[in-house]
Amino acid sequence: MCGIIGYIGKDKALPRILNGLKFLEYRGYDSAGIAYVVNNKVEIKKEIGRISSLEKEINYDTETYMGIGHTRWATHGEPFKINSHPHQVGKFTVVHNGIIENYAKLKNKLENMNITFKSDTDTEVIPALLNYYYSKEKDILKTIKKTINDLEGSYALGIICDDDYENIYAVRFGSPLIIAKDKNGNFIASDVPAILAYTNKYILLNELEIAKVSKNNIEVYNKDLELVSYVEKIFEGSQESALLNGYDHYMLKEINEEDKVFLDTFNYYVQNGKFKNTMPDFKKYKNIHIVACGSAYYVGIIASSIIEELCNIPVYVEVASEYRYKKVFYDKDTLVIIISQSGETADSLAALRKSCADNIDTLAIVNVVASSIAREAKYVLYVKAGPEIAVATTKAFLAQITLLILLAIKLAKKDALLKEFIGLEKLIKKLLNQDYKDVALSIYKNSNVFFIGRGIDYGICLEGSLKLKETSYINSVAFQAGELKHGSISLIEVGTPVIGICTKKDMSKKTISNIKEVKSRGAYVIYITNDTVVDKFYDKLIILPDAHEIVMPILSVIPLQLIAYEVAKLRGCDIDKPRNLAKSVTVE
Ligand code: G6P
User: Fold this and answer.
1) Of the residues 63, 81, 512, 549, which has the maximum number of CB atoms within 10 A of its CB?
2) Helix, strand, coil % over all residues of the chain, rounded to 5
């Protein structure tokens, strides 16, 4: 995982490349680097840490009109300068997003030919191979073709060759890459927000296509090096949607977009109380597998309860990193649903490919349009969350939940339930406008927090717990409310915060009993419910707007997201870019 960008044109390259990198920082931020052509030679600058550290070393006025940049999430080799991109061997300078799985074998082969390596990365074999093949081929396109033939794994590459400072070359397989057109020049980039300050016109590079990008021309070649045509796309979202827009953090901005995200997603599939034809009929499937990672997996857990209950068909949920390697039992009536915000998560993509290889029908639930998972699945349904920049997902989670509930209703042919969504955006707004600082103050100094709930509420607890730990670094665990007493209750001490959730009114007596069990052992209880509460067994109470049970997960997650945000803020954490994480995990 990592972000890459390149620019060639009439304008000075460094401001464009550095600005673009800032919009790719969500893909990793262990180190950053840039290579640019000045006085007819390639200069390289690298710094450990954020783009802001690299920026201090850069003179924006440098007379350079072409360059490539990289922001790194370390996989092979520690986050040292030597392992940072760009990597240069002989005449070739390269930035890479992805992972070269057979790099050790290739490195060994190249070392036996007396080629030496400076870094511990998998990437360095790429410029080494390019340089080696170029010495034989003397043709850059043929050289790139030969090089990628040797590579196993995934890559999006930006390449500069010392014999051709008129072009940047780019190629991709398994990692995303776009080419963008500006009036004064052209870009390559891992993602659209990186170029939105300059242009909204872009081309999606297909797998194994090679792009030759000059200041006023873009040529795309297929793997047989024949010129191919391409379709120019226009990005519909505004650049503002990728900016902070007055909020302190992207996480807060994105949570505050949830009323709109809900409506956009709902209205894309439903009109006047009826499903539009944007929602296909999946009724021929008699069992469902849901596969995903992280928060998207928790969406799967919640969706499985709803689908089983409503549609009376079995749903098997598994994390993608397990699913891809385990024996799974399908039949011809199985539908495999892959849920992924980015559409690029390596394990989810591998799980999808496994199902496709087994000839099982697949459905992708994705936010990023035309991402790998979206393109490879048999069917794709998009959530309408818009660009999500904060590493911790919030609005995309809410949009995924919305869409999965709609899917369950469609499958169950219970369209009458669609009326329960009417006006929900107002209830979402109400929750967004509440203040959760008080709750956060009662939590932020603790080192352990528990979340308990039953059924769907347990799924929401898992997400609330993940949000808290990833943004505030407080250890936190979610339990099925009835299960805590089977061992883990021994961790409850006087003052340990326990957040209990109950949105299933027929279960509230059971959940409340479990809450009382921890309360009587000294826990500090925060209770979240839409039910009437008569007894005072809690320390803090959050009342959710009352709505039909089927839409409650869309509401109940909001306080948990905002509590995590407020706690992280009180603890002074790097909210949008928590340590050790990356938004799009394109490695196994
Ligand atoms: C990373 C992110 C998580 C996300 C997971 C799955 O681990 O930090 O927030 O839930 O990947 O990402 P996806 O893009 O497939 O939904």
Assistant:
1) 512
2) 35, 25, 40
The amino acid at residue 106 is L
583 is annotated as an active-site residue:
yes
Q: How far apart are CA 225 and CA 214, in angstroms?
A: 17
The residues, ordered by sequence, that sit 6+ positions from 351 with a Cβ below 8 Å of its Cβ are 291, 320, 323, 324, 336, 338
- Between 533 and 89, name the one with better pLDDT: 89
- Cβ atoms of 363 and 284 within 8 Å: the answer is no
Q: Ligand 1, atom 3: nearest CA belongs to which residue? A: 294
At residue 27, the pLDDT reads 80
Calculate how far, in angstroms, residue 295's C-alpha sits from the geometric centre of ligand 1. Answer: 6
Rounded to an integer, the average pLDDT of 557-565 is 98
> What is the distance of C-alpha 160 from the center of its chain?
29
Quote the ligand 1 centre to 253 CA distance (angstroms). 18
Alpha carbons within 13 angstroms on the beta-carbon side of residue 133 total: 19
What is the distance between the alpha carbons of residues 28 and 48, in angstroms, rounded to a whole number? 12
Instruction: Domains for the chain: give ranges and CATH numbers.
Output: 3-237 (3.60.20.10), 244-432 (3.40.50.10490), 434-575 (3.40.50.10490)
CA-nearest residue for atom 8, ligand 1, is 583
pTM, full prediction: 0.76
Task: Identify the CA nearest to 72 among candidates 138, 122, 145, 110.
Answer: 122
Q: How many other CB atoms are there within 10 angstroms of residue 405's CB atom?
A: 24
Q: Is 348 in the pocket of ligand 1 (CB under 6 A)?
A: yes
Crossing angle for the helix pair 258-269 and 424-432, to the nearest 10 degrees: 160
Give 18-50 pLDDT, tens digit per residue.
999 998 987 877 899 999 999 999 999 999 988
List the structure tokens of 162: 């010392």
* Nearest CA among 424, 432, 384, 404 for reference residue 560: 432
**Omega cis (within 30) before 387:** no
Report the range of poorest mean pLDDT among 127-131, 284-288, 371-375: 371-375
- Taking the alpha carbons of 117, 122, 127, 131 in that order, is the dihedral positive or negative? positive
Confidence class for position 78, pLDDT limits 50, 70, 90: confident
Catalytic entry in 91, 354, 467, 583: 583
502 catalytic per annotation: no
**Average pLDDT for the chain:** 94
Residue 446 structure tokens: 């603790």
Give one DSSP letter per residue of 147-196, joined into a string: HHHH--EEEEEEEEETTEEEEEEEEEEBS--EEEE-SSEEEEESSGGGGT
| C-alpha pair distances (Å), 567 with each of 16, 257, 391, 473 | 35, 20, 16, 10
Strand order through the sheet with 379-382: 315-319, 287-292, 334-340, 361-366, 379-382
Give me the amino acid identity at 97: N
Question: For residues 453 and 504, is the Cβ–Cβ distance under 8 A?
Answer: no
| 31 pocket-lining for ligand 1 (C-beta < 6 Å) | no
Closest C-alpha residue for ligand 1 atom 7: 294
Segment 269-277 shows an average pLDDT of: 95
Question: Tokens 């790719």 belong to which residue?
Answer: 24
